[in-house]
Amino acid sequence: MSLTRFSYWLRGDRPELGPDQRERLALETARNRIFITGAMFIIGFCWITYGLIDASVLRQGNEPAVASGTDTRELKTERADIVDRNGMLLATDLPTNSLYADARVVKDPVESADLLLTVLPDLDRDSLIRHLSSRKAFVWLRRNLTPEQQYDVNSLGIPGLNFQREERRVYPHGRLLSHVLGFTDIDNNGIAGAEREFDNELRINNGPLELSLDTRVQYALAEEVENAMETYSAVGAAGLVMDVYTGEVVAMTSLPNFDPHRPGQAPADARFNRSTLGVYEMGSVFKLFNTAIALETGTSTLNSVYDATEPLAIGGFRIRDYHGENRWLTLPEILVHSSNIGSARMAMAFGGETQQKYLKKLGMLDKPQIELPEVGGPLVPNPWRDINTMTISFGHGLAVTPLQVVSGISTLVNGGIRRPATILKQDGAPAGERVFSQKTSELLRRLMRLVVTDGSGKNAEVAGYFLGGKTGTSEKLVNGRYVKNARMSTFVAAFPMQDPKYVVLVTLDEPKGTKETYGFATAGWVSAPAVGKVVTRIAPLLGIEPANAKAPEIEQALQIELRKGERKLASF
Amino acid sequence: MTRAVTIIGLVLTILIGTGTYWVSHQVERLEKRYADIQSDILAEQESIHVLQAEWSYLNNPERIERLSKQYLSLAQIDVLQMASIDDLPEDADLHQYRINKFGEAVAFMPVPRARPGDLMYDEAADTMIIDAPSVATETGAAQ
Asked: Which residues form the Penicillin-binding protein dimerisation domain (chain A) (predicted)?
């Protein structure tokens, strides 16, 4: 069949044929066409049928049991929640409605303003009228209305007023954690505390942010510190509780505090985090570090004796003792009687370089590491002279944050390993850096216990929990001068001393003595009882059982040798 | 034959057509329901979210303390009041009874355990021990 004939066949037209043949041919062609078309349809239908059977019968077993929609939406707030270590909600976003006006639609600004003032009386009439007559398409009138207010405004029926759905940061515990959590601005940007530090993470919102804090412990600490602050009319106070093995901050308070919902109304002093941003000379608390360095470097043993018979004169300064014993003192006695002279002599034995090295390792000379933007760097003397070495041995001349002290004490008692302080919940103890040997740490535990049983920390004693700690009272530096009767009274304690788990610190800023303290405002009188009360309240919460004081294993663990071959028990 | 095929074809067409329409209508209905349920879930999630915030607010330790002071006659647990199961006496001989003056059997106070601190123990002992005659004199008097 040639190409021309094929095309004729296709057209059903064969001009060379006669009329009869052409008619027959045309019919045949038509039948062929119908056949081909029919065949195509049959193929098509078969295809569809196969598809149907395949989809409904054959593939049935492979269908997923639960349909997965592509448009499944989940509630995503603008910022992630913040929860405490037990999952208690500390900060969250709640939906609110804000009122705005489309000023182009507002008919009578003055009348509308007056109507609106009947519902929202705290708005300013003049600025309201100015806003409503501004002819702008969008003017905020009032952010974050309560549902009630929204209903009232809506029922006024003023044209041109609309609501914008917004989210507002809410802190269910109010002031309790204000310094740790920080706050956000009206557009929900974190501008202080953890809200600022974790601003990006909170915006990405991959589940809640878990902090290491415990709301219950925080409350116990905050309440006791507040009581102490009120009793002794202090201008401020700070409190910290830290897990010695993980470096987790379990509670952190700074007073006065503020309402995170209205941070703007609080004075700057209330927003100042004394626990991490304030740097203070910590006083005698540093004698613990000093003693640890002396024991670690081997320049002193428990039996070393130091001459504290008279004030130590160096470079125009005289180092005196607050509770003067005026005799030779052993190393434990230096801590018990909090002897500045003895500590200075001890520090001179190992020298300034060693002191700097160890204080550096303890993190006292650098900005503390913690996940908060409000962190204060220490005030380090430069150059570091002998006089500095001597004064720093008893906590003067080096100002650090309370957080650093708590970290340092954790290092002392946990076996000598320094771990970074954190406000995030940790899964087990993070890797640390060894500063002191296990042996030094054990000796320090006994010495700290001795301070509470026989020394200046007696008022902190709580039966059964074996507190060990150190008092520290320093005169406040104002404009580079020490001010008499303006003190920082600090007590830092670890418990239970036979196996320390937590460190508690209470610092009072400018406490005044009362009749009950015989007018004394030193740490042993004002801060130590507060620490004792805090421990009584938080130990059951933290799962620490009170132990029997007569238990031989604890006596063994806390026993300490005093001079003159006299055996002395650190406990009872 | 042709007619039969035509009729069958027609019936099939109508059936398939109706079926397809019905299925598509069902799908549309289900999709609408799905969207409704989705928005319901979102609304519920939002309520849960608000309730969680409220739950946290209601769990504020300050409030709990206030309520506990108001409605419960409970005080803070004293160190003396805590004990572990190991502190309990093992021998049953300690559970002795005496007869009081009405002839009723009354349990003796359990023997106090060793406690944190002698002082606290003494104080507690003073407040806990009730003056009572010994078993011998008591039973003697009853006879």
From this structure: 77-185
